Amino acid sequence: MMRYLAKFLYSFSLIMLYVLLFSGCTAVERPHDDLITTVTTMLPIKGEVQAQVLQTQMQAQQTDVPPFTSGTIASEDLNVPEVLSPLEFHYSNPTTIATGGGFYFAITTNGDLMGWGTNKEGQLGIDVVDNVPTPTRIMTDVIAVSAGSGHAAAIKTDGSLWIWGRNTDGQIGDGTIPSNSKPPIRPFKIMDNIISVSAGHDNTLAVKADNTLWGWGSNAYEKLGVSESAYLNTRKYSPGKIMDGAKVAWADYMSSLVIKTDNSLWSWGENANGLLGINVPYRVHGENTFSSPKKVLENVAIMSETLAVTADGTLWSWGYNAVGDVGDGTFETRLAPVPILHEVVTISKNMAVKSDGTLLGWGNNRPVRLGFQWR
Length: 375
Fold this sequence. Notes:
This protein is mostly beta strands. The chain has a single domain (about 40-365), classed as 7 Propeller (Methylamine Dehydrogenase, Chain H). It has helices at about 1-25, 50-55, and strands at about 40-50, 95-100, 105-110, 115, 130-140, 140-145, 150-155, 160-165, 190, 195-200, 205-210, 215-220, 235-245, 245-250, 255-260, 265-270, 290-295, 300-305, 305-310, 315-320, 335-340, 345-350, 350-355, 360-365.
């Protein structure tokens, strides 16, 4: 009798353990739990919107949620719902948009720079250090804006460069050594005669009218073009010249990109997983950073991170590909650029707009970042 009782108790305990384990897996409440949000797409997939949605034809309207760009997810700090597909913007007349680390900018047709989103470190350049749910005017006469992880930079019509926000690594470029003091809140002028600017994660790149490239902030991974050993994070607290012959620059987390005046694309910094696109494999027991610029492609019109569009409209992609971010139909990391689309007119990370107005996306769709819903 005791033997049968022991078997019964053992079987009952296994059943209860099974119930507890699997009920625990399904009892967690998640928004939109009926959606499969972990889908990875290896090839570009056509969305249900056209180019005018990506460029946000913003119309003044009343809404209970703050503005969003296509395919984005709302910031948790703003306490608003997720957005699973593109929404119409509720501010009028934009010409340029920029997205940072939870904060956003738009330039109107009359040159007003508007900002909204998280603002705990002065990312929006306004007097109040708090989250801002609706577009707020920051400055006027603006022709270009770039948003980094925690700081931002804008070019005015007179070519002056203005900057504000986080300064933990000297990315503001005002010559001050970062400390525990509050970051600059209001925009202030840092340079003149600027034609292009890129605010990165912890550094800033700018191109002057004489086509010289300047950089400041963190030099981790040698992304400011300064050679260092053992990945030391040296910093430049004020602008320093990097190279001549530059036209457009891009400051990324571990690397830098520039299109030169001859339309060739160059990169330098960390080359893990083919990040630089220079067809050099990762060396397990060797140095993988490059402080000297290396050529990536010729005849480049626009670029963004690990994407570039050549003059004929071909979209090239390279780098880490474990979740399909290259978009070439494989999960194989690409050390050098491979063509994935044609007739492309504009790009952003994992998204492209073709000349016929179609918007395409590829790669990791978690959490629904591509704006596609699978059921």
